[in-house]
Amino acid sequence: MGGLIFIYNSKSAFFNKLNDFAHKALSPSTYACSLCMMTYGDFTVKSEWKSFLESLPMEKEFLYKDQLEALPLDLKDLSFPVILKKERKDLEILISAEELNEINNLQELITKLSDRLEIKQ
């Protein structure tokens, strides 16, 4: 069934992660990564999200926007966050940044992702 690539609107360096944590806690309405806001609590991945991901019969990869070296060049101009679907070497946008930014909560994200993957909940 291929795989999924989740790309966060953040950078991978330690200080970036620390800054993101503080920003998310102090001013969540201006935090730039809606995917992170929905899927992470204060310190860890939300258990409902973790269980959902574990139930998916495919590989999952999680990247930050500064870790895209292995992806095709034409995808480096993407808006973030984004969820991509990988079939062999082909990548397609499964849920765009615009769509992610319109989703209000984790259950909506799980429903949209399930619908796009045609998985019954």
What attributes does this structure have?
121 residues; 5 helices
Task: Kindly describe this structure.
It is built from five helices and four strands; from the N terminus they run βαααβββαα. The chain has one domain (3-117). With 121 residues, the chain is an alpha+beta fold. The chain is 38% helix and 20% strand. The chain is globular. A four-stranded mixed sheet has the order 2-1-3-4.
Multimerization state: single chain
Mean model confidence by pLDDT: 82
Please bin the fraction of helical residues. 25-40%
Largest sheet: number of strands, sense, barrel closure: 4 strands, mixed
**Beginning-to-end CA distance, first to last residue:** 17 Å
Using DSSP, what is the number of strands?
4
- Using the alpha-carbon principal axes, give the shape: globular
Strand order of the largest sheet: 2-1-3-4
Q: How many DSSP helices?
A: 5
| Fraction in beta strands | 15-25%
Count up the domains. 1
Low-confidence stretches: none
Computed structural class:
alpha+beta
Order of helices and strands: EHHHEEEHH
Radius of gyration: 14 Å
In brief:
This protein is of the alpha+beta class. It contains 5 helices and 4 strands, in the order E-H-H-H-E-E-E-H-H.
Would you spell out the secondary-structure blueprint of this structure?
Layout: E1 3-8, H1 14-26, H2 34-39, H3 47-55, E2 59-64, E3 82-87, E4 90-95, H4 97-102, H5 106-117
